[in-house]
Write a structure and sequence with these properties.
Distance between the termini of chain A: 35 Å
Largest sheet of chain A: 5 strands, mixed
CATH superfamily of chain A: Ribonuclease H-like superfamily/Ribonuclease H
CATH topology of chain A: Nucleotidyltransferase, domain 5
Number of strands of chain A: 5
Number of helices of chain A: 7
Order of helices and strands of chain A: EEEHEHEHHHHH
Oligomer: homodimer
């Protein structure tokens, strides 16, 4: 039984949204991918509403079982963090109102899950996303590939158990944590099996890491 | 003709919401003030939904003409900024969907407008809010007084012209600016008159500044 996950790479100018179906054997299939945009000459509230409208339309169309969101960290550019945090808040609200579990994953968790290497660059992530989904070319722009990577990462990390996402999101409240979330202790046997499979895949993934 | 402004002091644990009616002669009347709360043991998406529900109920009940929000700045505690930015995003979305203008004001702008002194402390702001609104005691907790201060500040700074708030929000997109927003060049004659009145009030306000 496949799990359908919607991944969001949050942003005010470009917000990547990817939907994948992931089978228990880790096979992943592309359902849809779009990059929502809002014009920079609109005020922030209207930009947020524009992105929110697009997000709701995609949720309505594809009805995912879980939402995976990039965990936002402090970066050098304060205005970027604010826009990203605002979009994240809006995405969380929309998911919560549809009673969808929301999980947060850091960029390094996503890179590690997808490429086997937590410091992989965008080209490596894009190439692995294309390979995992059996696409002929890398999804562009990077926000699209990142959103798909988030969705795949989430399905792989949780073993496709949509409900498991809730505790992950809870441990990420405030988005101030770093590294892995240390929730291993609470894993079900099925999740532990997934985790083992993920680790094995990560090792082989590292060995065959895509060259640019 | 009074303008009704809803002020929001954004926060995930406590979100102050104050509604005031402000007359063209700067007289302000309390309409309502509440502090919305969300339990820390809920995950962030549900906490945002809890606050959003409360905010929508107040908007529905009091139908303000404008929303004033505190402009968020980088502070030492990253998790606080994130929660505040997420709530701000949610508040902006809700306002935008009701086609309400949203204005951002910095804490020092609010303090300057209310007490005449941009570095006033919370007790001074609370005491002035109580005096302006003719209340027998200072609204508690501080989030309640801050939300009312934001609403009064907004009405005073814009001369009660709800439409003027849009350009203010636009100049604040990204919430990364500091100080006054330098929009003086775009003021209408009515707004210039208000600004002059505000400056006069700020001077006398500074002179009679409330002691603790």
């Amino acid at each position: 039984m496949a799990v359908r996950v919607l991944g969001i790479d949050p942003g005010l100018t470009r917000c990547g949204v990817g939907v994948v179906d992931v089978e228990p054997n880790r096979t992943a299939k592309l359902v849809d991918v779009v990059v929502l945009r809002s014009p920079a000459d609109l005020d922030t509230p209207r930009r947020l509403a524009r992105i929110a409208d697009g997000l709701e339309a995609i949720l309505e169309e594809h009805r995912p079982q879980a939402v995976a969101l990039e965990r936002v960290f402090a970066r050098s550019d304060v205005s970027t963090i604010m826009g990203t945090a605002q979009i994240s808040g809006v995405a969380m609200l929309i998911a919560a109102r549809r009673v969808l579990p929301v999980a947060l994953h850091t960029p390094s968790e996503v890179k590690a899950a997808i490429t086997g290497y937590g410091r992989a660059d965008k080209a490596q992530v894009g190439a692995m996303v294309a390979r995992i989904l059996g696409l002929e070319s890398v999804p562009k722009p990077a926000d699209a590939a990142d959103a798909l990577a988030l969705a795949i990462c989430h399905a792989w990390r949780t073993g496709g158990a949509a409900g498991a996402a809730i505790s992950d999101a809870r441990s990420g409240a405030g988005a101030a944590r770093s590294g892995r979330d240390g929730s291993g202790a609470a894993l079900t046997p099925a999740q532990q099996a997934w985790l083992a499979a993920e680790r094995a895949a990560a090792v082989s993934g590292a060995a065959r890491r895509v060259k640019e």
